[in-house]
Design goal:
A two-stranded antiparallel sheet has the order 1-2. The longest helix has 19 residues. It has a domain of 40 residues. With 64 residues, the protein is α+β, with helices and mostly antiparallel strands. The chain starts with a helix and ends with a helix. The chain contains two helices and two strands.
């Protein structure tokens, strides 16, 4: 459990550093925003896929 918390912390730090240096997480080309009047719907499809792939690779590396 301790290793998992350390890895999650490192992933969050890496994501924060990447965003600080200009990686557009949350604004990728596959992320959709629909606006109609005062209602806004945001679907982060590409960001979700990217995060899923990265987390899957991390989990696969730690299960070895």
């Amino acid at each position: 459990m301790a290793k998992l918390l350390i890895v999650l912390g490192l992933v969050l730090v890496a994501a924060g550093v990447a965003m600080q240096f200009g990686l557009p997480l949350g604004r990728l080309p596959g992320d959709f925003t629909f606006r109609r009047g005062t209602t806004t719907v945001y679907l982060p499809l590409a960001t979700s896929l990217l995060v899923s792939v990265v987390l899957s690779v991390i989990v696969m590396l730690f299960r070895r």
